[in-house]
Amino acid sequence: MIPVAILGGSGYTGVELMRLIANHPQLKLTAVSSRQFEGQPVSRVFGALEGALDLPFSAAEAGALAKNARLLFLAVPHQTAMAAVPEVLAAGAKVVDLSADFRLRDLPTYEKWYAPHTCPEFIKEAVYGLPEFYRGRIKDARLVANPGCYVTSVLTALVPLLKAGLVEPDGLIANSASGVSGAGRSAKLNLIHGEVHDNYKAYAVTGHRHTPEMEQELSLAAGQEVRLTFTPHLLPIDRGILSTIYARPAGGASPEAVRECWQAVYAGEPFIRLLGPGVLPATKEVRGTNRVQLAVVADPRSGLLKIFSALDNLTKGASGQAVQNANLMLGLDETAGLLDLACTP
Length: 345
Fold this sequence. Notes:
Blueprint: E1 2-7, H1 12-22, E2 27-32, H2 42-45, H3 62-66, E3 71-74, H4 80-90, E4 94-97, H5 107-113, E5 127-128, H6 131-139, E6 143-145, H7 149-164, E7 172-178, H8 193-196, E8 201-202, H9 210-222, E9 228-234, E10 241-247, H10 255-265, E11 272-274, E12 292-298, E13 305-311, H11 315-329
Parallel strand pairs: 1-2, 1-3, 3-4, 4-6, 5-6, 7-9, 11-12
Antiparallel strand pairs: 7-10, 8-9, 10-13, 12-13
């Protein structure tokens, strides 16, 4: 069993990591930190883990956790993660960072959308953690930047099409709706039951932090600068993301051409599910899984392609993808611990 640890286990991504590691055939969780719950058994804070994990929460710092682990998951906010990376790497452990601290390759862009960066020397070393596109580099990496949840839903749909020249790089629009767990576990007035239940609304309409991350990867795929109009929405469900993307077909590209492109790029990919004509993605069909569902239709009136993507924001959108990256970094089967099916209904 390979020892791993989690820095920051009190949030939804932290407990999702623990759920996945508890069922992993080759990973053993040696420690999980939370200053808020220091000393309390993990199973008392998260009853769903009772009988699976008997660890108490620790207040240990990142360097101490890394001494007894080959890989450390950073499930902490931005800035906290960047402060931990140097000491973890110095201790000889590998890192999967679930924050945004090393996702953006351009330092001024990061600091515009987030905060001053305290260890920019590691930005170039960090590998962007979308295995479907960067698998080879992830295998050799010490530091992997786990992508954002909205970002994963948009990039898996669009990157192959931009690379193949099937959609125009200008005028791209993505409307994405996420379950409330995407906003974290801390108490916020706008996320209490009375505000969220039976409600549906847009937010961050003038700029969301995932936008520059999407534009970075879309621009690389297109070979030119891409600007994306992105609007996130809050769904009155616990978990899941559904993205609806509008794109102008290049050279009259049809839905059939899009599906053929996806089939060529994603052949053999264990977590990408391509849906045929007349079938659309649904959040419940990917709930708790590391899967992404993709579908496409043509709008006969506007001539636009409507592209649909669904995933679980806590699994393939965060912790599941983190475990997928860890599997690659540790030389394990990429799918280990990640083959559970969705619960229906």
